[in-house]
Amino acid sequence: MSERLSHRLVAVVACPDRRGLVAAVAGFFAEHRCNILDSAHFTDPDTGRFFMRVLADLSEAPSREELETAFAPVAAGFGMDWRFHDPARRPKVVVLASRHPHCLNDLLFRQKHGGLWLDVAAVVSNHRDVEPLARSYGAPFRYFPVTPDTRDQQEARIEELLTAVDAELIVLARYMQVLSDGFSRRWLGRCINIHHSFLPSFKGARPYHQAYARGVKLIGATAHYVTPELDEGPIIAQDAVHVDHAMTPDDLIAAGRDVESLVLARAVKAWTERRVFLNGSKTVVLR
Known about the structure:
Layout: H1 2-5, E1 8-16, H2 21-31, E2 35-44, E3 49-57, H3 64-78, E4 81-85, E5 92-97, H4 102-112, E6 119-125, H5 131-136, E7 141-143, H6 151-164, E8 169-172, H7 181-186, E9 191-198, H8 207-214, E10 218-225, E11 235-242, H9 249-272, E12 276-279, E13 282-285
Parallel strand pairs: 5-6, 5-8, 6-7, 8-9
Antiparallel strand pairs: 1-3, 1-4, 2-3, 9-10, 10-11, 12-13
Helix pairs in contact: 4-9, 8-9
């Protein structure tokens, strides 16, 4: 896959909407002998923000560095927040997990078999339950135990690790610890969490048993960015499955594990493909 992507570039742009944005970006790539292979853009009528992702072939173009230098004045003229990414490079990801292995297992399986283009630089846990799973995939494992009195020290160790491995993304794969406000703010837009979504909602202990007692007919999962507001960050991906009266609490738990794994993988894949844009309290996920 890396060979196929070696002469390609992903450009992402976000800025206030105005006439001529699409033409300016497309014209720039045409002028510099880049062939656009895929392009998607969206303007939010509520925020007035414009978002664009372009995949371009650079086989006949100048170097990526020369393109970045040439694009800078175009971006400045439109007030763009922008970046050029090398799609051949696997983003380094650190996965945090506790005792539930299903989301971690799914991510590691997809990475190994090509479903996710990323490099799991480390698996961090406050328990040792998932250590055999991580090591079975060859993922470096770090055991950072935590108590209410040592959370700050544990977070400091995690951030030291993130710096050491040059991590671009944190994935909370059923990590059952609340991150501090400061940590959440520092990693805004680079930390993804997964949690169950019930209609109606059940919080606290044994949510699937609460759902069973109420006869819920639909369960799901939400992947979102981590923010200081617990489980209220901008949503990246969601899905749901139907359940019925014949299912036991264990059946609901199994269905929940499946949808949690699927939704988290979708969110991580969209992020690694540079399709996710922060847009205030929500996201834009370009196809």
